[in-house]
Design brief:
It comes from Staphylothermus hellenicus (strain DSM 12710 / JCM 10830 / BK20S6-10-b1 / P8). The chain is an alpha/beta fold. The chain is built from seven helices and eight strands; from the N terminus they run H-E-E-H-E-H-E-E-E-H-E-H-E-H-H. Strand 6, helix 4 and strand 7 form a beta-alpha-beta unit. The radius of gyration is 17 Å and the shape is globular.
């Protein structure tokens, strides 16, 4: 219960600092969403970020991994913090192979290692799948991927087909339930996002 209470406080802070925004936003996938999660500037809010990292470390404690690998670009800084706190090596996966020098797609030694893939937000899971495949092509083993927020738009199922479990601190359902519980958003906004999620979850 303590962790859930902390997460509720974090959700409220994310909203008040405009890291969770209500509106009309076009996603990378091209879809129009009634909300947007902007965690790229999250590390600028040290109080919120430190609490998120603390609770992330607690959630990741039971997992076994040798190296933390972030996804370019947002996932790199989060992977770095998690690696530092768990005293593990860190690496990252590029969106595209480096065009000069080593032409690497994966930076960091993952061969023969159990890898935790890290990003900020999971939507459809395309970036996570790319990272998993890249790490596996270098001889790394991936069984878990971690994100702060799961938007619940197919990433969990997509990774499951790859034999990877998606671990998240929270999802959109949790966020909107907290916001309506504390009367930060009204019921009309709640149902607008709920209807969007129902369409994305059930097609």
């Amino acid at each position: 219960m303590k962790n859930e209470s902390v997460l509720e406080e974090i959700v409220i802070d994310l909203y008040r600092n405009k890291l969770f925004k209500i509106g009309e936003y076009r996603l990378t996938s091209g879809k129009i969403s009634p909300y947007y999660i902007d965690l790229r500037i999250l590390p600028s809010y040290y109080d919120i970020y430190s609490r998120i990292i603390d609770i992330s470390i607690s959630k990741l404690k039971p997992l076994k991994f040798d190296i933390v690998v972030g996804i370019e670009s947002a996932g790199i800084i989060h992977a770095s913090f998690i690696a530092c706190r768990t005293r593990k090596p860190v690496g990252y996966v590029r969106k595209k192979p480096k065009q000069h020098g080593t032409r690497r797609l994966v930076e960091g030694i993952v061969t023969g290692k159990k890898v935790l893939v890290v990003d900020d937000v999971a939507t459809t899971g395309g970036s996570l799948e790319h990272a998993v495949n890249a790490v596996r092509s270098e001889g790394g083993t991936v069984e878990k991927a971690f994100v702060f927020i799961d938007r619940q738009e197919g990433a969990r199922e997509r990774l499951r087909r790859l034999g990877v479990e998606l671990v998240s601190l929270m999802n959109t359902w949790f966020i909107i339930n907290v916001l309506v519980k504390h009367r930060i958003i009204d019921e009309q906004t709640y149902y607008m996002i709920k209807n969007y999620l129902d369409r994305e979850t059930h097609g």
